[in-house]
Q: What sequence folds into this?
């Protein structure tokens, strides 16, 4: 039986070493490292979240940041800037018993616990039970970096290769030379996030209020995050037409894996698909710079599918301490 210990979220710094030890033992991803979680909390926490660790004797087997989202309803902390819900668990312990103990440890009566956006590459999808259900979420893509770029490119569709070559030829006729820069200098991160925001503010995200800006909470989050990981584990990709930046990626990397957190491009140059071209050049760059794979983590778009066939389905977990609630929900849905 696992015993949960519940803490207020303002104790995260105090328990960050324990959090990181568990992360290293299990998923070993920068997306759940304390260096990622800390700026996420500083930017998007409302202070009501709880920090919970589960122990089997002296062994820490699970950890989560969880918050109440309604009467009796709890869910993992996950702002939209986080690709994964704040849940870490040894695979052998992701069972009904673990969730039952968590439900009994949380304050008040618990009707449902939701664990959002889990990656089957990190935690195998649990089998359903009378108390536990899983729900499909997005398909996301992974691109394994080839040893030989030309061989890889020959496997992509003829239409994609032709359109890419046509765009290159049009640019050449206009006297435009595309190039990619990969930057990891901590002193440049703030300016690069600002540049990212300038490009993103040209598109629909500015109208919806979701664009990154150096003056908004998103801009401050990404600046702080990249500063925390630079220079060893943060990269910003800039794609240029001559001296003009036309696309930018904000990235983290660890264990030979590159994680693309956010992508934007200059709408004025959309006819040339600069973000797609940047990622093609990026594959070539990765093949000679110790990167074995790229994780996109966003919904698999058509341009992802042009680059890779390796897709997997993310999922949510819902746990109901009272099994009849799960049955009622299924009838309603």
A:
């Amino acid at each position: 039986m696992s015993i949960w210990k519940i803490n207020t979220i303002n104790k995260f710094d105090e328990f960050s070493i324990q959090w990181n030890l568990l992360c290293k033992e299990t998923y070993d991803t920068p997306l759940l490292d304390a260096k990622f979680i800390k700026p996420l909390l500083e930017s998007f926490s409302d202070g009501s979240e709880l920090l919970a660790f589960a122990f089997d004797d002296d062994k820490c087997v699970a950890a989560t940041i969880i918050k109440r989202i309604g009467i009796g309803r709890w869910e993992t902390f996950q702002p939209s800037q986080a690709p994964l819900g704040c849940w870490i668990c040894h695979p052998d312990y992701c069972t009904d018993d673990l969730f039952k103990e968590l439900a009994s440890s949380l304050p008040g009566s618990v009707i449902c616990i939701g664990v959002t956006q889990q990656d089957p590459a990190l935690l195998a999808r649990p089998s359903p039970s009378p108390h536990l259900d899983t729900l499909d979420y997005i398909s996301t893509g992974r691109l394994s970096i080839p040893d030989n770029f030309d061989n890889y490119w020959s496997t992509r569709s003829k239409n994609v290769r032709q359109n890419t070559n046509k765009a290159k030829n049009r640019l050449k006729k206009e006297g435009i030379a595309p190039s990619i820069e990969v930057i990891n200098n901590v002193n440049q991160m703030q300016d690069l996030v600002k540049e990212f925001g300038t490009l993103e503010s040209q598109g629909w995200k500015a109208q919806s209020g979701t664009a990154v800006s150096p003056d908004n909470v998103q801009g401050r989050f990404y600046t702080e995050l990249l500063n925390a990981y630079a220079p060893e584990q943060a990269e910003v990709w800039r794609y240029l037409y001559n001296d003009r930046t036309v696309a930018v990626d904000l990235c983290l990397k660890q264990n030979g894996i590159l994680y693309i957190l956010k992508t934007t491009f200059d709408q004025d140059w959309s006819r040339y698909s600069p973000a797609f071209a940047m990622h093609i050049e990026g594959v070539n760059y990765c093949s000679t710079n110790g990167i074995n794979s790229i994780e996109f983590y966003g919904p698999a778009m058509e341009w992802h599918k042009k680059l890779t066939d390796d897709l997997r389905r993310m999922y949510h977990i819902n746990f109901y301490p009272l099994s009849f609630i799960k049955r009622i929900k299924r009838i309603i849905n």
Summary: The domain at 3-137+315-332 is CATH 3.40.630 (Aminopeptidase). The two ends are 33 Å apart (CA to CA).
